[in-house]
Specification:
two-stranded antiparallel sheet, alpha+beta, Alpha-Beta Plaits, binds iron/sulfur cluster
Amino acid sequence: MGRRKEAVSLHLKEEVAMGVFIRVEIDEKKCLGLAKSGECIRICPVNIFEGKEGRVVVKEENEDECTLCHLCLSKCQPSAIAIKKLYE
Ligand code: SF4
């Protein structure tokens, strides 16, 4: 395993140890922003996303409430959202 992978793996283990089990990420290069989309904000049943200065951002304090329903993934046309389980 390379150094970067080891560092990422260690970081994920630390997050799991802190009780964070799900990571929701937005690829800012792909995201269309509030002016053109924002569908994820409307569809997420547990309020993971919010608008900030024209961009869609993840509310980190809500991140672990994600139910893995994948509604946001189905609505995000440019596939800018990634949902990662930090546990097996
Ligand atoms: S998978 Fe469901 S609960 Fe999780 S961020 Fe997407 S819409 Fe919200």
